[in-house]
Request: fold
Amino acid sequence: EISLKYGAGRLGKRQDADMKRFRDNRLGAFIHWGLYAIPGGEWNGEMYGGAAEWLKAWAKVPADEWLKLMEQWNPTRFNPKAWAKMAKKMGVKYVKITTKHHEGFCLWPSKYTQYTVAQTPYKKDILGEMVKAYNDEGIDVHFYFSVLDWSHPDYRYDIKSEEDEIAFARFLEFTDNQLKELATRYPTVKDFWFDGTWDASIKKNGWWTAHVEQMLKEMLPGVTVNSRLRADDYGKRHFDSNGHLMGDYESAYERRLPDPVKDLKVTRWDWEACMTVPENQWGYHKDWSLSYVKTPLEVLERIVHAVSMGGNMVVNFGPQPDGDFRSEEKELADAVGRWMSVNGECIYGCDYAGWDKQAWGYYTRKGKEVYMVVFNSPYSRHLVVKTPKDVKITKAVVLNGKEVGVKETARNEYNVDMPAKDPGAPFVIKLQIEDNTNAADKYREALT
Ligand SMILES: C[C@@H]1N[C@@H](C(=O)NCc2ccccc2)[C@H](O)[C@@H]1O
Reply:
C-alpha cells in the first residue's frame, strides 16, 4: 500500500449506532426541488429532453438570467406536513433533500449568498419547515449538497493559474461556511450526500474533501458522509489509491445497480443507490412522456434488488413549482407504501443473505431468518432454493400468510411450494433455517 494523507479515514464497515440506523433504514426518498422546477424542462418555448435540473446547461442560460427565476419562487401549495405524511405512508425511513443543487439556489436563508429562499416571494426557511415536518413523523433527514455551484463567480472547473488558485480557495471557504451553517442550523441532520464533485478542481484538492468529512463529523458526531465527496492525494474518487472506500458508504450507483451475480464485491461495504422514475429526471419536468416511466413494480424490484445486495435505495421525487407532487409520484408512493406495510420486514434491518440468486427473485436476511422475495412465479410451481453447505431449511411461511411445503431434493437443494393461490403480486416467504455445521453427511458426490 502507498502512504496517503487524504485517503480512507477507516477500513471496513462502520458498526456504530448511527451507521447501523443508516443501514437498517434501507429505504429513502430523494427530494429534488429548486428553481429548475419552475421551467420544468422548457425554455423559450423549447422543450428539452435532458434532466430538468440541468436545463440551465442544456439551454445555455447565463447564471444571472437563470437566477431571475427566484422572482417566481412561491410554492403556494407547499404543505410540509402533507409531504411528511406521504413519505411516512410510502414507508421511507429517511428523506434526502437538495439543500443547494448545481444552480446555486439555497432552500435555506444562507447568509453567504443572495441566492436563497429569503430573497424570493416565499421568504420563509423552506428547508427548516421540511426538516421539522419529516422529523416530527420520525423520518430522518439527509442533506444533498452540490459542491459545483453555477451561481458563484469563484467556482473553477480546473486550476490552471495563480488566479484560479486564489479564486477557488475563496470558493472552498464559501462552501465550508455554507456547510457549517447547515450543520449549525439543522443539527438533527443525519447525513450529507455530496454531488458535483467530479471536476478537476476538486480532484486537485483532495485535502479539502477530507477536511469537510472531518469538520462535519466533529460538528455532528455520528453523521454519515457519502463517498462521492472524497478525492485522495492523487485525485482518486470514492475508493482511494489503495482501493479503500472513502466516506461511510459508496454512492456511485446512480440510476444503475450492481449485478446480483457478477458484482457481489459490493456486499463487502455499505452502499446506497439512488434512482429516477423516468429514465433521467431528478427535478420536475413538465413532460414525462419523453422517456420511459417505471411502474411501481419496477421501482419495488430495484428497492429489493439493492437490499438483497446489502445496499440502501433512494427513490427520487421532483416536486412541482407550486409545492404539490404530480399524480404519478403520489400513486407511486401509495403503491410502494401498501406493499411495504405488508412486507416491509424483508427490507428494514435486512442485508445480503449470501445465497446464490435464483430466477424467481431475491433473498434478504435478518439474523437467522432468510426472506425469499418472489417477483417471477415459475411454471413448475416450485421455488428452487440452494442453501450454503451445512444450512438446512426447517420451515417456510408466506409473510402474513400460510405455511408452504418445503421438499429437500438433493444436497442443499429444496423445492419450496408456491402458495396455494398465486398472490398475483410480488410476495415474501420467510424461511427458518438450521445451521448444522457437523451434520452427518448422508449424500455422496457422484464419481465422475
Ligand atoms: C443525483 C443526481 N446527480 C446529478 C447528475 O446528473 N449527476 C450525473 C452527471 C455528472 C456529470 C455530468 C452530468 C450528469 C443530478 O442532477 C442529480 O442531482
Observations:
- The chain has a mean pLDDT of 97.
- Residues 157 and 201 are 5 Å apart (CA to CA).
- The first helix runs from residue 17 to 25.
- The pocket of LM5 is lined by residues 51, 53-54, 195, 198, 254, 274, 282 (CB under 6 Å).
